[in-house]
Records
---
Amino acid sequence: MTYEDPNIMDVILEKLLLDMFISPRLMRKYIKMLDLRGDENVMEFGCGAGNSSRWLAKELSRGALTCVDISEFWLDKAKKRMRKYANVRYMLGDVTKNEMNEKFDLIFIHQVIHDLPKSKRQETIMALKGMLAKGGRIFIGEPINMGHGMPVSEIEGMMESSGMKEDNHYFDKALLIGQSYIGVYSISEQGN
Ligand SMILES: C[S@@+](CC[C@H](N)C(=O)[O-])C[C@H]1O[C@@H](n2cnc3c(N)ncnc32)[C@H](O)[C@@H]1O
């Protein structure tokens, strides 16, 4: 799927497969893994059409979700899809370039970093880590397929070099996405 320049097939696939079938199944597992209290301040970095955001918003009944994307097209889709959630706000643009006067308990990243140029991946994670509150965590789910994805060693290396320590990880498989690395990281003592 081409997220930057979507065509009609991308939009249909996103709606029929991702939104209706794939994301609900994946998000049930991810939310269980995250063990949220429901009052956290969460950012979803690269929310796309909001397939994951919808499930996070439901879980944060006493918290808040900030959906961030650089694509106006996909952020508008997310806004429409989630108009009934009062605890969600939307930010268009590259938050890693702007100083945000806000800290997050969790930054959720699903299928975003592998699409960035290799030279930008580490600095993006470093910038996001700087937006974490004390005790904050990063959820990262990235494809690890040879053709479209990034190696597990790169994901783990990038997180550790950014001062994050792994709490938990596993490997998942889904239609359209293929094999993914799913990990939860918190700020390491050295990374403080
Ligand atoms: C493959 S989609 C994944 C969307 C969503 N996370 C999901 O799993 O359905 C990647 C998204 O990341 C966004 N993106 C890419 N670079 C970004 C950046 N620097 N800041 C924010 N969003 C970005 C793209 O516009 C796209 O919507």
---
Amino acid sequence: MVMAPKITTGMPAGKKPRPRSDFSPTEFDQSITTKGYRMWWSRAGICPCQNNDQTDQPDPNCQLCKGEGRYFFLPDNVSDGGKDVYGNEVELNDAGNAVSIYVLMTAMAQDVQLFERFGEWVFGTAKVTTQAPNKLGYHDRFIARDAEMVYAQIVEFDGADVIPIVGSRKKTGLRYPYISIHELRSVSQVYKQDEHYTLTSSGTIAWIGSQAPDSGTRLAVHGTVRPVWIVLDHVNTYRDTQLAGGTPELSSQKAEALPVHAVAKLDFLLDAG
Ligand SMILES: [Zn+2]
């Protein structure tokens, strides 16, 4: 007599497969649009400048990734705008490297404001869920379109008329465009908005007349910015459901993708960890 192996490959004896009727992928997608945040979504690519086989270090002078090792690009050939899979108008950002989507955010760290007190070492993560067709990848980026958060940084002023946005790799400018400035100061002087400087519509700081400090002055900038999130981990790499196929055969059922969720972390916290 042959012993039955201790594995399972189908239905329990006497049971017939019944398609699940408990889940509608389009209703899941619908609830994400009604409860989600508007975000600029960019895909992340690994920059080809990482040519050192031992360390995979990016080239600090790389034009594509600016030494970050990853670059961001527009998802899925929507560069000409047009319509999404549901027929909605596609909206692109000014840089042309992000598309506006809805993102459900849950389990967001409650203590993002603590950053004001503790500097750049607060642990800020959230679970993000996107509509089923928007398949997230590792290191993808979201920029909140409507939300504001407090951010503070140091600028090593280089004497230019405008303090530009330089990203994360340099200290000579702003990491993000600022929406508002609470304080701008050196150790010895506080600079006042509309007296010493103006905040431009593009989020940079422009000095008024000869009010700029000496080149080489270190400045503290404190204000609000749009939160930037980076995808760090996939809680579900994929999540599918079986739809009715019309016959009682499992093989005739149709697998359909459901929204997945992933863990994202505030972009500036990645430098600290
Ligand atoms: Zn590169």
